[in-house]
Amino acid sequence: MFDLYPHPSRPVTRTKSNQPFLLGKGRGLPPALAARKEEYLVELTGDEDPANAKSWALRRKLINAAVLGFDTLVASWGSSVYSAAVQPVAMEFGVGEVVSLLGLTLYICGFATGPLAFAPLSELYGRKIPITFAAFVFTCFMFAAATAKDFQTLMLCRFFAGVFASCPLAVVGGAFADMFGNETRGIAIAAFSGLVFIGPFISPIVAAFITDSYLGWRWTEYITGIMGALACILDLFFLEETYLKTILRKRAGHIRTETQNFAIHHVSEEEAIDFKDLLHRHLLVPLKLLFREPIIFLITIYTAFIYGILYLFLEAYPIVFAEYRGIKPTLATLPYIGLILGVLIGVGIVIAFEPRYNRKLKENHGIPVPEQRLLPMMVGAVLFPIGLFWFAWTGNYPEIHWIVPTLSGLLTGAGIMLIFLQALNYLIDAYLMVAASAIAANTFLRSFFGAGFPLFATQMFHRLGVDWAGSLLGFLAVAFLPIPFLFYKYGEKLRKKSSYAPTDFGKQQAPVDEESTDANNDAEFDDDDHTRRNTEVEGEHEKIEPAST
């Protein structure tokens, strides 16, 4: 969700080669440059350099933030807009409703696989190109889903639409980090996360009215495709590149072209990128963190449960309000408004805690204070099970007015927002040097929970009843409730024992595995003066600007 790969400051690793370099017929290497390498580097010219998105005017930031926010809304909208089409699709293609639900779950499975590609792409090519390309391909798959002639085509199109819809969820957080500093980033990320959760609750309402009208279920996909096309157009014409490394690399290319001095470059152009590096950095490290770090494992399981409940409600609410209370299916989606208002309340609570966090951050000399992120999460951990029990024991009793279970969404939605957002912020602050990998592990696992929970929701609520099915979820929420309190008390001690999250940020370095260390040792050749001189030139001033967190 957040593209925050930290401090890529390790020296560029180059493979030792004993072969002579030939530039052309009979031409070897030219003489070494007389000037020091840093004299040819393109860097920021000052704090107000427009290459630094943090220096942009507020209006410029807000325009880009609005475009990115719409991208996020479209992506999350597309995940649940299909919920109203489950029954019509099952009838049209002659499959069971559980099988038809795959259109929802496969889209969410795409959320798990897409970031593995889009996160590294955003670091190689910046934010705009991946987001714009993904919006275009997403639009194509949504229109293909709308015109699908058979069930398998529809399912494949929904899955690949989910893969490309995951791009904003993986990249937009990083773009916000590019534009907003510590003081305002919390508010920006809270607004972004609000859109992530509001989308899945708004689209079922709209989709129900579309499906119930003469338009039919295909128009749920058509309208989502139209929204994707609009997002693509906005990305093309209004979205600006925010990634500092990409902007400076383009500047270096322009200066090279104008001056014909081909030694001028940005330090990122010296990066040696290969498949092994991408595999280790974006797949193996997240898995290591997930299973070796107790903080990441427990937080990920908790947020995965929350994410699963989010999509389970897409099946539970129609059962309660349409089946048990006999409300017309289109009107039975309106109680989602309670959840939407709850999410907005959660956003408000997070924003209300921001001044306190900024004060603690300032007192700590700008060094993150991870445990301070847990205070709003504690509030959410208490509100969430209360909302679940409230919904469970008021939902299927017709003598209780429908507004009562609807109001439970205020607590449930606020709990979802507070737990989910602050858990991610806690991981970012606690694992600053490997934050992107920690978030990647969280995204990977929670997406499968979100995909799996709707598949058993109907059977669980039918067999256990709304009261005990909801209570089962409430008891699980109570079991998770102590997590933020325990980490608030013992989190710093656990981080001191971790090699990935040391509390001494002044000396913090990204963990280096043995293979990388061996490669670095191989790259530093022995006593030949010419080789040593080249090694010093290559290794000196190699630091890249750390991505903001």
Automatic annotation (TrEMBL):
CDD domains: MFS_Tpo1_MDR_like. It is found in: Membrane. Residues 57-494 form the Major facilitator superfamily (MFS) profile domain. Keywords: Membrane, Transmembrane, Transmembrane helix. GO terms for cellular component: plasma membrane. GO terms for molecular function: transmembrane transporter activity. It is a multi-pass membrane protein. Residues 512-528 have a biased composition (Acidic residues). Residues 529-549 have a biased composition (Basic and acidic residues). Pfam families: MFS_1. PROSITE patterns: MFS. Residues 502-549 are annotated as: Disordered. The chain crosses the membrane at residues 62-86, 98-119, 131-148, 160-180, 187-210, 222-239, 295-314, 334-353, 374-394, 400-424, 431-456, 468-488. This is MFS general substrate transporter. It comes from Glarea lozoyensis (strain ATCC 20868 / MF5171). The lineage of its organism: Eukaryota, Fungi, Dikarya, Ascomycota, Pezizomycotina.
